[in-house]
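User: Assemble these into one structure.

Assistant: Restating your components, then the assembled model:
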Amino acid sequence: MTIQFNDESFRDDYTFHNSDWAIKRFPFPFHEDSYMYSVNMEQHKGGPEGSVYEMRFDVDEHYVSEMKDRALVLDQDPLRCQSLPHMTLAGWDLLELIMVSKSEDYPDLFELHRNGNQWRWINKPMGIDHSFTFMDETTLPYGPMEYITRQAQGDFVVLDQRDEMLWMDAGMVTTQADWSLDFDIGMNFFEWHAPVPKAHEMGIFKRALKFLLNIQQGAPARRLNWTMTVNPLLDTSPENYHQWGIQKTTLTPENIGHKQHLRVELQTFFRLPRSNALVFPIRCYLCSFQDLMTAPKWGRRLHRVIRDLPDELATYKGFIDNRPMMLDYLSQFDDGLPTSAGVWPDLETEPPLAK
Amino acid sequence: MSGAEKIQVKVTEITPLNELVTRFRFERIDGGHLPTFSGGAHTVVEMQDGGITRLNPYSLMSSPFDQSSYTISVRRDDQGRGGSLFMHQQVKLGDEMTISYPVNLFSLDLRARKHLFLAGGIGITPFLAQIKQLELLHGHWELHYACRNEGLASYADQLTDRHPNETHLYYDDQDQVIDLKNLLRGQPLGTHVYVCGPKGMIDWVRNTASADGWPEDCVHYEEFLAPQPGKPFEVRLAKSDKVIHVGENESLLEAIEREGVDAPYLCRGGACGQCETVVLDHDGNFVHRDHWLTDEEKAAGKKIMPCVSRFEGKALVLDR
């Protein structure tokens, strides 16, 4: 597989765009015409060929530009990447996991050559060819977690496991949906989820914690989460809310199709071998409303989900004010026909829009 | 499929250490690398013992960073249900076996400034891997290892040779006892205590530390229970719509698996909580033996851990 990497921006002039290939493989998160929280975990052991679930760490056309955006964020705010002192071993575990996975899954893009602890890492898209000593921090330009996550799409949260609890003790977080690593660092699982409405009462977090504590080596898991973002912004952080929050007011009936994006997170969970920590990669995919509407099934379904979503969730996800305008737009693509089950677009079998 | 992922291995070394303990080395059948792991992890070894599939957990004692082989040490239990006897008497060099990926329920707290290890008998094995891990990471540790006598002190020689300043040995037959109270009081701030051994020793360490004001999350322990034989009993599995018979020498979990019902598990020793099963109805008494359920839960009779616990009475119905 050869990927044509886009030259694009996620800020200022927003030249981000999805190719037809990227739209078709977009991880649409709604498997039915309504949405409510669930733990919705499944094993992360591959998926349909070409889908974002196929590889352990998906690489797509946005890779090179996303890494440039991450470097910009870190330049302005180094606290987006933090690792408490006891988490260095987990950082090496993560570096190994990503290097081994990428070199095996994308041999044309990445190479890893190991001779004992002498490692050579080649990242062709980013033009990196680096020899270093595994477990010797002095041979890398950054700590191991920062080094490898500057070369991997998505945010990474590394959770220490102690006393039947998970602790957010390290992470690289520059593409987040309005939460802050600097604020959450050192918190436990219940503390950092405290702001989420409804889910606590539903017992979701207790069940989720129990599941996560038992994720074992060799058996990673995954789930999807979603929100809405105006303009293709990767960095929707609380730290920069003054810059992006106001952009939500720029939405008009004329520009909503290309400005409003569905933001989907592919969340995966891997047990790390040496540290017994858990890494939680949160990979962000953006797709504009107008691109989503090219799949008739997604058009019908997105309208119904957004229309019927409880107000608390629309508020928490930050689009309650824009919901009426979103529904005006989306209703044009809902002809009332039934939709097939599951998340896939089913382009060949779903009827075209009858409206 | 329940439990951790599986690995096909062959037995490449069998080393009797003393009259009770034998060491086994496993290498992958396909010649590839085994996963690295964290000190304190165990593997579940599958044994095809006649018509019975036994799945016993053993602590990995080799270096967590050595991917060429895993080693475990098995203490023979003549009163047990036969898992350790199978390992000692039936397993031969070159045999092919199935083991699970490493699972760690007894990992180091990597924030600790110092790790204080307290081992009793065969409880030494997880510490052997943790010590190797800390050697590579330049960690600060100390070991106090109590055994019945010198002859049964597995690995005492190599520990004292390699780590003369960190290793302290105690022999019961010489009336040597760990001076626990003073040992705990002499520890620097930031020390974590780990204990692995018989139940009495674990209780002693936890109670002594607690009485002296040690925070609970600085005291770590691991005790794998082996399922004990007991009176046979019958169970109705409501979801699977089956009535099964649990024999004298098998656990409830093993009986469920024998009937082809997939039930979750990890440690099979009453510690991890994975096999927790809802009791729908019962008329009789539970023999709860796990460390997972609280005393209140055990008294309530609404849950059972089928890996180690049993039942005596007229009827038991499980949500499985």
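The domain at 6-104 of chain B is CATH 2.40.30.10 (Elongation Factor Tu (Ef-tu); domain 3).
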